[in-house]
């Protein structure tokens, strides 16, 4: 049986990442980038598809793992009858090529250890040519090469590299695996102890800029570290997750490649980072965004490659059995070709928040944003594939129309608050028209709530975004009724479903079957906070935090019946939801209120202001953070 997703740790160097089981096995690693072909793919197949395990040779009485505080250094402790050892795994901040360092430290007694390295390039499909050059073990296939170095003796066995050794209390040994292009010479030797210190210093220095505090400080910081580790440093792009094809239901077919940069996910990530004191990452992401979406707004995609690549063709790997036999295993993502109206609103909202915290993206950026607004003017009334990337027919999704309103609203505010040039009267007029249409067609009098798409009676968790983006205040009776109906019909086993499973085939064209989408549950927490129902929000949030694995990591979804995480891991969107909900809960009751935009001077109704309610509103998503007290 595969290692449970809850039992995996995650390390990275802000270029790529590795998943390490509590059994000491690296079962997933792509080199040299997040979206490169994996050289360890046991996660989606078996050990024969590549893995790297270091563990005691004898059975263990106890195994545990934890991160060094405020770092991405993973420590796994094995306790056997005769002693205990600690395995320290990390990827040093990259200078040129990636390195994976594993240090074995004796804690007490003496333990017999085994190391087994099975390299299979191209997602577990290609056996490399192995050779020994001095003390280096070199493995080459096509453009890829790996060199293994150690202060211990290794040998070849059955198309793998192995070692048997003994570790006594106080002893430390290491293995270092480095990738490089096969046409070049191997990189220089790495000093493992120095690399460990530099890695620790890097993360501690980064975390020192965090503004997180209070009861949830540690879990927020762990989520922020995860978001940082999912950032591709050379370009500033943020991947949705470090993996592909981890199923949304064990044995199901909803298995997607998430190693790309979704505008929506990255926008929410940007918001969380900015709210937490990390404006440098926000600036880098904005530069990535401007490069990626440059050109005709009609060509805007919902997702891009790490450097802004547009072509992300989807295909299946037939030789991999999938995680716990969940086929197919997909590479690439055909959803990149979909039309999703909401990404325009999320992109313009992110740019607006950046302006409020002093990030100046320049006049060329505003010109591009104006082009996006102009395009939204043309296409806002068209059906789209929606936030859930349906593979069924396009529809007039209520959430999509709300986000079209957000696009116009933030453009208006750019002119009103920052004096930027724009057609203010036309934008205000269209903003009002979209608002009126959504309230008329997206609202079902028979249900007494907003619904998934125009003319439908179905609910959708994306409707929770209505108060979060300021479309209507959280006290509006239509909002309250919608939130309560979501609680009644979409909260199953204590977690929020995206939409009712009985309607899934009708809506998205796929067989039913998935876990609860964790970001939706965090949206509910945020809504309850905005509505003043803090005790209820706190109870719900604690249930969600309990779903995190022992390392504080979250996947995309949760299978409440099996009590297991499912979907790609770690999932940026889930950690963003955790951060935003924790921040909302951490504020004293009533302290989250701040002065909204001047309604008298905006020329719009109270309902169209950002959560407007007699000039005051609780904090909504993408709202301006209040100044920190000194």
Task: State the gist of this model.
By secondary structure, this protein is α+β, with helices and mostly antiparallel strands. It has 16 helices and 30 strands. It starts with 7 loop residues before the first strand and ends in a 12-residue tail after the last strand.
Description:
The protein is an alpha+beta fold and 630 residues long. It has a domain at 5-206: Glycoside hydrolase, family 65, N-terminal domain (Beta-galactosidase, Chain A, domain 5). The strands form 8 sheets. It has a 15-stranded antiparallel β-sheet that branches. Strands 26-27-28 form a 3-stranded antiparallel β-sheet. Strand 10 (129-133) and strand 11 form a beta hairpin. It is globular. Mean pLDDT is 90; it is low at 590-619 and 624-630.
In CATH, the topology of the domain at 5-206 is named Beta-galactosidase, Chain A, domain 5
Q: What is the CATH-assigned architecture of the domain at 5-206?
A: Distorted Sandwich
Backbone structural class: alpha+beta
Mean pLDDT: 90
Percent of residues in beta strands: 15-25%
Number of helices: 16
How is the main sheet built? Answer: 15 strands, antiparallel
Give the overall silhouette.
globular
The CATH class of the domain at 5-206, by name, is Mainly Beta
Unreliable residue stretches: 590-619, 624-630
The radius of gyration is 25 Å
CATH H-level homologous superfamily name of the domain at 5-206: Glycoside hydrolase, family 65, N-terminal domain
* Strand runs, count: 30
Helicity range of the residues? Answer: 25-40%
Distance between the termini: 53 Å
């Amino acid at each position: 049986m595969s290692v449970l997703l809850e039992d995996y740790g995650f390390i990275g160097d802000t270029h790529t990442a590795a998943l390490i089981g509590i059994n000491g096995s690296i079962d997933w690693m792509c080199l040299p980038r997040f979206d490169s072909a994996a050289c360890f793919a046991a996660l989606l197949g078996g050990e024969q598809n590549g893995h790297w395990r270091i563990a005691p040779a004898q059975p263990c009485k106890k195994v545990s793992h934890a991160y060094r505080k405020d770092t991405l250094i993973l420590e796994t402790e094995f306790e056997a009858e005769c002693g205990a050892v600690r395995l320290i795994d990390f990827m040093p901040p990259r200078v040129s090529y990636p390195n994976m360092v594993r240090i074995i430290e004796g804690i007490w007694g003496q333990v017999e250890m085994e190391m087994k390295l099975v390299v299979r390039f191209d997602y577990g499909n290609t056996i490399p040519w192995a050779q020994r050059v001095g003390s280096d073990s070199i493995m080459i296939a096509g453009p890829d090469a790996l060199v293994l170095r150690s202060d211990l003796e290794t040998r070849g066995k059955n198309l793998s590299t192995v070692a048997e050794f003994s570790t006594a209390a106080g002893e430390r040994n290491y293995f270092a695996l480095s990738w490089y292009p096969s046409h070049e010479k191997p990189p220089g030797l790495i000093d493992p102890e120095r690399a460990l210190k530099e890695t620790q210093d890097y993360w501690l220095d980064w975390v020192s800029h965090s503004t997180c505090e209070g009861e949830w400080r540690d879990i927020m910081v762990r989520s922020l570290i995860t978001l940082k580790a999912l950032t591709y440093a050379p370009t500033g792009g943020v991947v949705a997750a470090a993996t592909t094809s981890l199923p949304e239901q064990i044995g199901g077919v909803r298995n997607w490649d998430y190693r790309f940069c979704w505008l929506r996910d990255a926008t929410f990530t940007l918001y969380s980072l900015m709210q937490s004191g990390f404006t440098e990452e926000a600036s880098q992401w904005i530069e990535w965004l401007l490069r990626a979406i440059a050109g005709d707004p009609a060509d805007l995609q919902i997702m891009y490659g790490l450097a802004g690549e547009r072509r992300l063709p989807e295909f299946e790997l037939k030789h991999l059995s999938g995680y716990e036999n969940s086929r197919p295993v997909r590479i690439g993502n055909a959803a990149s070709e979909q039309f999703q109206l909401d990404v325009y609103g999320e992109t313009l909202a992110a740019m607006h928040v950046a302006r409020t915290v002093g990030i100046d993206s320049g006049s060329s950026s505003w010109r591009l944003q104006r082009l996006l607004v102009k395009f939204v003017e043309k296409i806002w009334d068209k059906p789209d594939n929606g936030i859930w990337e349906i593979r069924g027919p396009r529809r007039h999704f209520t959430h999509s129309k709300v986000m079209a309103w957000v696009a116009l609203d933030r453009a208006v505010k750019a002119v009103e608050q920052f004096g930027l040039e724009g057609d203010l009267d036309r934008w205000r007029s269209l903003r009002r028209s979209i608002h009126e249409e959504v309230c008329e067609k997206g609202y079902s009098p028979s249900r007494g709530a907003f619904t998934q798409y125009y003319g439908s009676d179905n609910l959708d968790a994306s409707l929770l975004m209505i108060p979060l983006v300021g479309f209507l205040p959280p006290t509006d009776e239509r909002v309250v009724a919608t939130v309560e109906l979501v609680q009644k019909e979409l909260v199953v086993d204590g977690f929020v479903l995206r939409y009712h499973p009985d309607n899934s085939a009708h809506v998205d064209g796929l067989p039913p079957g998935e876990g609860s989408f964790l970001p939706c549950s965090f949206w509910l927490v945020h809504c309850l906070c905005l509505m003043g129902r803090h005790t209820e929000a706190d109870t719900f949030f604690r249930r969600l935090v309990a779903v995190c694995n022992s390392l504080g990591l979250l996947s995309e979804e949760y299978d409440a019946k099996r009590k297991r995480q499912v979907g790609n891991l770690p999932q940026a969107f889930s950690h963003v939801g955790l951060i935003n909900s924790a921040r909302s809960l951490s504020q004293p009751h009533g302290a989250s209120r701040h002065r909204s935009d001047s309604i008298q001077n905006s020329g719009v109704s109270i309902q169209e202001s950002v959560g407007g309610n007699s000039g005051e509103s609780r904090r909504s998503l993408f709202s301006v953070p209040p100044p920190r007290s000194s």
